[in-house]
Predict the structure.
Amino acid sequence: MYRFVKPLLTLALLAYPLLSIAEEPKSADKPKVAIGEKAPEFKIKGPDGKIIDLAELTAKGPVLVRLTCGCSGCDKELSYFQEVSAAYKDLGLISLYIFKEPDDKVAKYVKDKKLNLLYAVDSKGDSWNVFQTKTMPTNFLIEKGGKIVAIANGCDASGIIAQKVGDKAAKIVDTKPVDVKGKVEDKKKEEK
């Protein structure tokens, strides 16, 4: 019996490295998209056909990436995030909104809402996969250099999420926080 086992064992030991080489390589896990981690590599085509590269944006300054749509919940929250963008734009904050809707609908929405920021359309939702989220909306605040400093998920028509993101944006641009909620509420009163 030993005569048969020894050659089989020897053959198995010799073949093992070959078998491990022949195995299909396991795909490397994507780095986790999380606070404190580097933002994922991300490029998307803007409405003008030019490529928007997140790495290029974060080399210039902090970036707020908002994965969103034009639904009623996101729409109600929009004015608060517009205020965050306006409050810190002159201090270097770049806002990039990614909409999960058809181009023509987004173009009209952007015009109607007077969005003065960088935006792109991703009707297939690939951006959500890159940023490892399924939640609509999700906001990623990324400091200059590319580290994620805040992630805010979900819709909040009261402006609390936008205020918290705005407060963190103020820290990374080294300024006093703006009362985003108060400014939006004042504008609503003026419109009445």
